[in-house]
């Protein structure tokens, strides 16, 4: 199967590319603009594979998308390309509007043109997976879970742009009959995660003896999903999901931000001990605007209908993640100079 993956040099996208090429033996064309979040070093283990191809292209460039569809004739599209860092969206929303909304429009239109050029058998086999986030649902209280039927209530420029893209994807099913499925996932973590994100930032700041900045009082809750589990879920949804449906992907691993940071400190105390406990480096900083209190995903539909199960719980996944960062300084060290601080506090 030839699969077009957008954003394949990013954190989740690279995990998808590695899984498709290395584990499943599919052919992939990775379409990535290579912004700050794209890093071809994440793909070194498959870069020489005969069934892996890379195209440095902006998804807002329709002519280039048409060229890629014509050249590779993909049977599936996994659309992950997005500006995804909430903190950055607070201080620079424009790029999020362009990539996440306008870029998704161009992807849907290029896929529609390709789909209409296929014969009946080709159309029957073609699928377009639009990859989204649980943040489109807004914030939960102390109880309850996000379901596929939960009303959208985005709080940040990032989540609003992803909600807009989801609505476009739905409209292209209803209006044009494009065979689209949508996934909405919880917070991902694992190897090759950009060092400005919460978990890698805390690991690397701890190792460098720097403060571990926690927003507010650290009580915000997220449901954590190991990135390799997510990659497997995405292929399952693209290949088996019902057209026009959406599937929530979650790890059933709710933790407060403070609990996450404290667990990282405890594991580092065991794996890389120093004279004082790492938790002494925890500091509390001004909360970011629009910081949702709690996210939690109900993945029952994906589990029961398509048979996917997360293989890692938070304890096993966070240990694997920390061990990877300890062993792979070659990857993260060049990126550290650009990711030493949280970026979501508005400057006065």
How does this model look, in words?
With 348 residues, the protein is of the alpha/beta class. It has a domain at 2-190 and 224-254 and 293-313: Rossmann fold (3-Layer(aba) Sandwich). It has helices at 11-23, 62-72, 86-91, 93-116, 120-125, 157-176, 198-207, 227-240, 257-271, 300-306, 314-327, 329-332; strands at 2-6, 27-32, 52-56, 76-79, 127-133, 180-185, 187-189, 212-215, 221-226, 246-249, 254-256, 282-285. The strands form three sheets. The protein has a seven-stranded parallel β-sheet with strand order 3-2-1-4-5-6-10, with helices on both faces. It has a three-stranded mixed β-sheet with strand order 7-9-11. Strands 8-12 form a two-stranded parallel ribbon. 47% of the residues are buried.
Keywords summarizing the entry:
7-stranded parallel β-sheet; 12 helices; 12 strands; about 350 residues; about 40% helix; single chain; Rossmann fold; alpha/beta; about 15% strand; disordered C terminus; 3-stranded mixed β-sheet
């Amino acid at each position: 199967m030839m699969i077009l993956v957008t954003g394949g040099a990013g954190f989740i996208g690279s995990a998808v590319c590695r899984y498709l090429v290395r584990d499943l033996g599919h052919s992939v064309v990775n379409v990535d603009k290579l912004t700050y979040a794209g890093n071809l070093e994440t793909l070194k283990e498959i870069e020489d594979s005969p069934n892996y191809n890379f195209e440095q292209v902006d998804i807002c460039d329709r002519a280039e998308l048409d060229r890629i569809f014509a050249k590779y004739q993909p049977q599936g599209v996994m659309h992950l390309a997005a500006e995804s860092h909430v903190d950055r969206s607070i201080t620079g929303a424009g790029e999020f509007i362009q990539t996440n909304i306008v870029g998704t429009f161009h992807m849907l239109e290029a896929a529609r043109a390709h789909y209409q050029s296929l014969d009946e058998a080709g159309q029957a086999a073609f699928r377009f997976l639009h990859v989204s986030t649980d943040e489109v649902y807004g914030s939960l209280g102390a109880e309850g879970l996000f379901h596929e039927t939960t009303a959208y209530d985005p709080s940040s420029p990032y989540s609003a742009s992803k909600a807009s893209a989801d609505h476009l994807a739905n409209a292209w099913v209803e209006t044009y009959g494009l065979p689209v499925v949508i996934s909405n996932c919880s917070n991902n973590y694992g190897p090759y995660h950009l060092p400005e994100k919460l978990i890698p930032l805390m690991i690397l700041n701890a190792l460098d003896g720097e403060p571990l900045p926690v927003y507010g009082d650290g009580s915000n809750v997220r449901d954590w999903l190991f990135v390799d589990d997510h990659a497997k879920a995405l292929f399952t949804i693209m290949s088996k999901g019902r057209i026009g449906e959406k599937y929530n992907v979650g790890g059933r691993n709710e933790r407060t931000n403070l609990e996450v940071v404290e667990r990282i400190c405890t594991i580092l105390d065991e794996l890389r001990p120093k004279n004082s406990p790492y938790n002494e480096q925890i500091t509390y900083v001004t909360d970011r605007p629009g910081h949702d209190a709690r996210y939690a995903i109900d993945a029952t539909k994906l589990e029961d209908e398509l048979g996917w199960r997360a293989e890692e719980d938070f304890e096993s996944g966070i240990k694997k993640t920390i061990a990877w960062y300890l062993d792979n300084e070659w990857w993260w060290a060049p990126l550290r100079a650009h990711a030493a601080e949280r970026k979501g506090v508005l400057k006065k």
